[in-house]
Amino acid sequence: MSQKFPHVKLEDVANVRAGIPSREIDRPSDDGVIPVKVINPIGLAGTYLSKVEGEDASLPGPVATRHGLKEGDILTPSRGIFRASLLDKEPEQLSGGFQLVAGPLCHVIRVDADKADPAYVAWVLSTPTIQAKMTASARGAAVRLYSRDALAEVDFPLPPIEMQRLLARAARDAQALMIARRDEARLELAITTQELSEILGFNA
Amino acid sequence: MPAPLSPAARTRLASISKQLKAKFPDSDSRLAAVAYAIYVCQGARRSNENMPRLFSAAQVVLPDYLNSISVLDYFLNEEADGPVDQQPLAYRATRLINDLANLNAGSVDLTSKAKLSANWMELPARELPFQLLLLDKIADPAELIELDPRLPSLVLGQLIRIETSDTDQPSEIIPAGLAELIAKAFPLLPGQAALDVTFGLGGMTAAALEESPSARFFAQEVEGRALQAFLGWLRIQIMPGAESALVQLGDPLTHAFANLAKTRPVDLAYVYEIEPTPKGELLRFMTQHSESGERLVSLWEAAKSRLNQVESELEQVEKERAAIGYRKEDEARAVRPAAEREAVGRELEHRLKDLSFRRESLRAMKDHLRGEFEEIDGRLRASRREFREAGLSVNRNDSRDLKLIKHALGEVTASGAVVAVVSGRNLIRPAIVRALRAYLPSDQNWLDTVVELPRGVAGAGERVAMLVFRKGRTAKDVLFVDASRIAAVVKAGSEDAVIDITSPELPTLRRQRVEDLSEAFVNRLAEIIRDRVEYDGVSAKVEISVALGESIDLRPQQHLSSLGSARITIEKLRQRLQASVEQTRKASAALQASRAALGLAPLNPQSGPAAPRPSGS
Questions:
Q1: How far apart are CA B171 and CA B182, in angstroms?
Q2: Strands A14-18 and A106-111
Q3: Which of A102, A124, B96, B279 is the most exposed place for a label (fewest CB within 10 A)?
């Protein structure tokens, strides 16, 4: 089948690295340490993160600088179910004032903004096609393991940057709509439960 | 209220805590804790001779031989007492601890009855040098005191932490989060006094001392926990402003000497008594009895096997005798020369005689072995019967928690209060509930608050409850607090709480188990208990009137379901729904616009026209 858009490998448009090694977390330092939040795969809920839950840790200054995340970084788990999440805001805004680092079970993708739109890359990595590719290249019988190299080599279509932005915007809007509808449905359920309870004379 | 730790102190403590967990995973660190506390006392004196930052630690009287050398050198110096092996280290530790207890008898009364030496000698000292070197490297007291004088005590708290992962055997020592909660909910004014009748490792007193440094503290612990009490005393001593703590040893129910009501009126008493679950108690009983039981079983097996062996030999002999009897009959019928017949007959007679003799001796041995076996069998049966009876009896509650509460209520002044953390079973157990009825508003009116805490909070596999008694109160209601759901307490009173209460995930949240309590939870719950605040679905003031003979149940949840949740108005929900519908409309319009920009048809025409996008977004 002919390709509508040229395909590129992830490593051609982004730098892919592993999360912080466990040994670096809470290592004492003579030069002092700074508090950070470590993101684990369980915190990667949705393609566009607007809030992040992480574990408290302290890192020596240089380590925090080396592993600190930035707005536009994409995180993927290195095992389990493959997905991708974009830090949609500055880490301090997402975490309530803390620097963020990716945990040992995550990979970090830093997209070169001149070559691709991070929001587009995050979305495309979340598509079933890429998930299937990653699953095919995964090792491990009980738990799927995704190597950094396999992730760096995954290929996907790269349309012009303007088109990438439009696609990413549509994907982000679709996610926002899903969250809004879910909230609405929960409220409708709560109100209905309350009204039905009142019919019965229940208070709960 | 004490100032929170600075970020630098907090991260330093987190780092030390992490390393202690990594380096001291399963080892016994109690000796190291004692040595560290003494090291802190030495550091406190050294830090500033004129005005030590840890005044109380500097006041601890140390033995003369520690004047010139640090406690690390005392343990690590190989020339002090010969080669460093387990025996000299344990000996030095015992000597040091006994000397310390004797020299400081004014504030820690442990020496009278407790056999401290024997207890300490049992502690393993092999890893002590490594532990001390590590502590010196990561938690040098002088350095920590400069950073924040509270840090050494917090480090010691980490060192003497009791593991709470075994749900069948709850921690004997109050967890830090719970102690902090009680300290915050029941602050003491300057000059007021508190009595901790279950001192343990001093967690409760330490937390209260930190919260109310100007109050006076008395504490008591049973003799069997002399080691813990000594460590707890050391922990208190190295806290800033701890000069008023007095720790004494003796069961509060039999030796109420920690409080002399007239000279030292007590305003607040703490009780912490969590029952192990019946299963945990039974397992411990089995462990204690397994050694003698195993020996008895092995004896029984050996006797049985010897008896079987003799019986089978006897059977064999009987068979051989029978065979010889047949042979003799055959020989009698056989045609042979007389001399030969006589010789064969003699031989057979001889063998028969031998076998008869052997049979008799085997029979005697069998009787003896049977007697032996029956004796052991009888002992084993008796042991099993005893074990079964004792196993059943461990399920019976001796109500020590209730006795301690009664004792504490007797000790506090006419306007005093008692905070008791007990097993949640007490809220439904008829006998206990009947006893607690005496304190309800309709009677003595002392029961002020009933709190159900999250499962697992005290290392218990079941509910844990906090009961608050206040003498001389005038309110005619009891505050019931269901704090078993962390999120509901943290969000209590906020808009989010409304959704949480009605969310379908509620049943799973009820089974939530925690071991550490978050700061937000502790602060909010302390506020609810201290200010007696009512929050929908979390807390409610209930007037209980109990008629004689009527059975009652003190679980908070049942009282909340009829009061707290009723105040979640549909109006509030509707307002939120309106906002949510607007949000959905905007999101839908935005998606339509995005799709239109890509030339895609609208998905849901009812959502209205695509919203114009602000330029540059």
A1: 17
A2: antiparallel
A3: B279
B7–chain A Cβ distance below 8 A for any pair: yes
Q: Does B14 touch chain A (CB under 8 A)?
A: yes
| Torsion angle (degrees, nearest 10) of CA B52, B57, B60, B65 | -80
- Host H or E run for residue B525: helix B519-531
CB of B4 less than 8 A from some CB of A: no
- Taking alpha carbons only, the member of A34, A54, A23, A97 closest to residue B12 is A34
Residues 6+ apart with CB under 8 A from B548: none
Domains along chain A? 7-159 (3.90.220.20)
**Out of A32, A174, A184, closest to residue B577 by CB:** A184
d(CA B100, CA B106): 11
B594 contacts A173? CB cut-off 8 A: yes
Q: Are the CB atoms for B188 and B216 separated by under 8 Å?
A: no
Q: Is the CB of A35 less than 8 angstroms away from the CB of B10?
A: yes
CB proximity B562 to A under 8 Å: yes
Q: Please check whether residue A3 is in contact with residue A156, taking contact to mean a CB–CB distance below 8 angstroms.
A: no
The shortest CB-CB distance from A186 to any of B10, B499, B594 is to: B499
State the Cα angle at B183 between B181 and B184, rounded to 5°.
65
Q: Which residues of B touch A58 (CB under 8 A)?
A: 11, 14-15
Q: Is A203 on the interface with B (CB under 8 A)?
A: yes
Buried/exposed B350-359: b ≥16 CB within 10 Å, e otherwise: eebeebeebb
What is the C-alpha separation between B361 and B380, in angstroms, rounded? 28
Token code pair at residue B80: 């002090």
Partner residues linked to A7 by β-bridges: A157
Contact B570 A195 (CB under 8 A): yes
State residue A118's pLDDT score. 95
Any B CB within 8 A of A193 CB? yes
Q: Which residues of A touch B502 (CB under 8 A)?
A: 189-190, 193-194
Residue B300 CA, chain-centre distance (Å), reads: 38
State whether the Cα torsion B287-B288-B290-B291 is positive or negative. positive
Strand order in the sheet with B412-423: B108-109, B245-249, B216-221, B193-196, B266-273, B412-423, B464-470, B447-453, B478-482, B539-542
- CB count within 10 Å of CB B584 equals 21
Tokens 């129910």 sit at which residue? B253
**Cα B561 vs. chain centroid, distance in angstroms?**
31
pLDDT of residue A170: 94
Reported as a single tens digit per residue, the pLDDT across A110-129 is: 999 999 999 999 999 999 99
Nearest residue in chain A measured CA to CA from B617: A169
Q: What is the ipTM of this complex?
A: 0.84
Q: Residue B537's closest chain A neighbor by CA?
A: A204
Distance CA B603, CA B452 (A): 50
Length of chain A: 204
Q: What share of chain B is helix, strand, coil (3-state, %, to 5)?
A: 55, 10, 35
As a 3-state breakdown, chain A gives helix, strand, coil percent values, each rounded to 5, of: 45, 25, 35
Average pLDDT, chain B: 76
State how far the alpha carbon of B457 is from the alpha carbons of A34, B484, B485, B516, in Å: 30, 10, 12, 7
Q: pLDDT, tens digit, for every residue of B537-588?
A: 788 888 877 655 566 678 888 777 544 444 557 888 888 899 999 999 999 9
Contact by Cβ (8 Å): B510, B557: no
**Lookup: tokens for B267:** 């305003």
Q: What are phi and psi of B164, to 5 degrees?
A: -120, 20
